[in-house]
Write a structure and sequence with these properties.
The structure holds two protein chains of two kinds. Chain A is α+β, with helices and mostly antiparallel strands. Chain A is built from seven helices and five strands, in the order ααααβααββββα. Chain A has two domains: 17-76; 88-167, Glutaredoxin, CATH 3.40.30. In chain A, strand 4 (144-146) and strand 5 form a beta hairpin. Classes of the chains: A alpha+beta, B alpha/beta.
Chain lengths: 168, 518
């Protein structure tokens, strides 16, 4: 089940020319792949920091799919963002192995320190906080990922370091 | 002799500071004007000793660990490059009990070789399986894999050889090998370790599968939460192509086989094989009804072998040493070795490859050394989020597919999460239902709606609202989910829930509300 955040109805806008041109470039590069839609969405998110809604009709047209199909795929996967994330993205593992080592208490402390909850971004746009269900670091629990860098055996000291790094 | 220093580049080691250690060692070398090669190897899997630094000396390798960047200065002072004594010295890494007592077949090279050196791979027995495979008929390869008794290591335990035979026997203009590297289960990291630490063994296994079944294209679908594994596999595939291990003439034979790496996008259900195929095709990761089997109509409707990383990575040793060699390990219908991943609240966490048959108690108490917190072990979840919680009373269960099934559990991908006595089993049961609700693909009703109703009903139990009646309802609901769901997500969520209820009933009793004293 795709996670659908609240907010106004998601309306397909006619493509903004600049975004459309960059999107078309990405599509041209990846269209030859078998099943190119996920690689295209990943690349668009890489390019824009999220998947702008204007890109979806461009993809639909290029891949000969309906807009609804493309929208359905986009919303199915947790990774694809409809709005840009903060400058930093902090993911805290909340799966069973990390729970056994106190990941919930860690999350509570981080939330308090940053003043935000999961799936939220600080008002200054510094950091987005997200839960993640397993980073494969289960023998070094509790674990986290900051901007793609892995952190294991997270403790109070690590939390302070992380909070300081994202606040800087 | 050039000095060679090994500092793991495995993400489990990076998570505990291996990069900082590597930089400190580099600085130490240049400050002392010493020439040395630093190899970023995989991890040997003893994560409680990571970052574990090894030095190649005149008397073999000497290990130090767990090393912090701040220890590096004193290591140089203790002449660690000559194997000098130091409080962190571990001696010969092969003699560390956690490592010495294993039977490393699939992980034979992991943590020892340079993951991206094909020469190193060959020197340590790599490519022998593929060389044997290109010299014989496809049906012969399938026969050897079938005789080895290898069963799908992803969790279902389906015989690998039979799957391959179906694909071999299904005529088609195009066939695929798909490697399921969507290792989403908590407590599992074997796939990640092999992809980061010995990626060529997976490439070799996939090439053998391709030659055995007539498939020319392979995909590795890796979860996006594993960026290091994705990067490692891409790098290794490029090296393998250059050396003609992949390409139009695999090892100079007339067989063509190539591999492409694909990234998942954060959907747990895509670890289910048919959902994974849909995702690869660029669709929503929704589960397909079976039949048709993927072996007959899989990726893009073509015959497809879809195997877990561990299954494919176990094939090269079978093709190298023969079916009998592999089959001689294990017990009953569980043949060969299994990489057990010991995780969570445990003193000696890590990967432990061993023949099937150890008891759960031996794994948790003896190998794992009990809890990290020092408190008593209360529960052990075996097989990831969809596996059952086992109490100490069942610690005599041998690690074997059938033995676990007989105790209403499963070994799944062989991950074990240890919990101490602070674990609240009602909360864990609720978490299992909640996880299922969030990750359900939505195709079948028992999973999509049952999981949400499960959360609500367990909340009522927790709130003391008609607990007996509501527990009966949860039991009935679990029965519906188990037998009515399309795939293992809805079908296996009842395992953690029911095992928590059955083995830890005290956590599901209403807490008596104290009468207010006037």
């Amino acid at each position: 089940m795709g996670r659908i955040e609240g907010g106004p109805c998601f309306i397909m806008q006619p493509a903004n020319t600049e975004i459309a041109a960059r999107t078309q470039g990405i599509i041209d590069e990846l269209k030859h792949l078998e099943g190119p839609l996920l690689p295209i969405l990943h690349e668009i998110q890489q390019e824009f920091g999220h998947v702008p809604q204007e890109t979806l009709p461009v993809i639909a047209h290029a891949l000969n799919m309906s807009r609804a199909e493309v929208y359905g795929v986009f919303t199915f996967y947790h990774d694809f963002r409809r709005a840009p994330a903060g400058r930093h993205v902090l993911k805290l593992c909340q799966a069973e192995a990390c729970q056994s080592m106190g990941s919930e208490a860690i999350a509570a402390k981080v939330k308090q320190a940053l003043g935000i909850g999961f799936h939220e971004t600080t008002a200054d746009g510094a950091v987005t906080l997200e839960p993640v269900y397993c980073l494969g670091l289960c023998a070094c629990s509790p674990s986290a990922m900051l901007d793609g860098a892995v952190i294991g055996r997270v403790d109070d000291e690590t939390i302070d370091e992380i909070v300081e790094a994202v606040r800087a | 002799m050039t000095i060679t220093i090994y500092i793991p580049g495995d993400s489990g080691a990076l998570a505990v500071g291996a990069d900082k250690v590597a930089r400190a060692v580099e600085r130490g070398l240049s400050a002392r004007n010493i020439e040395a090669v630093i190899v970023r190897n995989g991890s040997r899997g003893a994560y409680f000793l990571e970052p574990m630094v090894e030095v190649e000396t005149m008397v073999g390798r000497v290990a130090y660990g767990p090393v912090k960047a701040s220890d590096v200065h004193s290591l140089f002072d203790a002449h660690f490059l000559d194997g000098g004594n130091h409080p962190l010295a571990l001696g010969d890494p092969e003699k560390i009990p956690f490592i010495a007592n294993q039977t490393r077949l699939t992980f034979a090279r992991c943590g020892i070789t340079d993951p991206f050196s094909l020469d190193d791979f060959r020197k340590h027995g790599g490519l022998r399986g593929l060389e044997n495979a290109v010299a014989i008929a496809p049906a012969e390869i399938v026969k050897i894999v079938t005789e080895s008794g290898l069963r799908g290591r992803g969790g279902a335990g389906f015989p690998t050889g039979i799957k391959w035979k179906t694909v071999l026997d299904t005529p088609s203009d195009r066939k695929y090998i798909v490697c399921n590297a969507d290792e989403g289960d908590s407590a599992t990291f074997a796939d990640r370790m092999i992809m980061e630490g010995d990626p060529f063994v997976l490439i070799e296994g996939m090439a053998i599968a391709g030659i055995a079944t007539g498939a020319t294209k392979g995909y590795v679908y890796i979860r996006s939460e594993y960026p290091h594994a994705i990067a490692a596999m891409e790098k290794a595939v490029a090296v393998a192509r250059k050396a003609n291990v992949l390409g139009v003439n695999v090892l100079g034979s007339p067989n063509a086989f190539d591999i492409e790496i694909r990234s998942g996008a954060g959907a747990y259900v895509c670890g289910e094989e048919t959902a994974l195929l849909n995702s690869l095709e660029g669709k929503r990761g929704v589960v397909r009804a079976k039949p048709p089997l993927p072996a007959i109509q899989g990726l893009f409707g073509k015959p497809t072998v879809i195997n877990n990383v561990m299954s494919l990575a176990s094939v090269p040793i079978i093709m190298d040493k023969g079916a009998t060699f592999y089959k001689d390990f294990g017990l009953g219908r569980s043949r060969g070795t299994i990489p057990i991943q010991i995780a969570g609240n445990v003193k000696h966490g890590g990967l432990y490859e061993v023949a099937f048959g150890l008891t759960l108690g031996e794994i948790v108490d003896e190998i794992g050394g009990g809890t990290a917190s020092g408190r008593p072990v209360r529960a052990v979840q075996v097989g990831g989020p969809l596996g059952a919680y086992f109490p100490r009373a069942l610690f005599d269960t041998p690690f074997d597919y059938e033995a676990f099934a007989a105790k209403d559990g499963l070994i799944g991908h062989a991950g074990i999460t240890v919990f101490d006595d602070s674990a609240d089993m009602l909360k864990m049961a609720r978490f299992a239902m909640e996880f299922c609700a969030v990750e359900s693909c939505g195709k079948c009703t028992p999973c999509r709606i049952g999981s949400t109703r499960g959360v609500e009903t367990l909340d009522k139990v927790a709130g003391g609202i008609e607990p007996e009646k509501n527990l009966a309802l949860v039991t009935d609901l679990c029965n519906t989910m188990k037998f009515g769901s399309l795939c293992a997500l809805g079908g296996f969520t009842p395992y953690p829930v029911m095992s928590a209820i059955n083995h830890f009933p005290e956590d599901f009793r209403p807490v008596p509300v104290p009468q207010a004293a006037e």
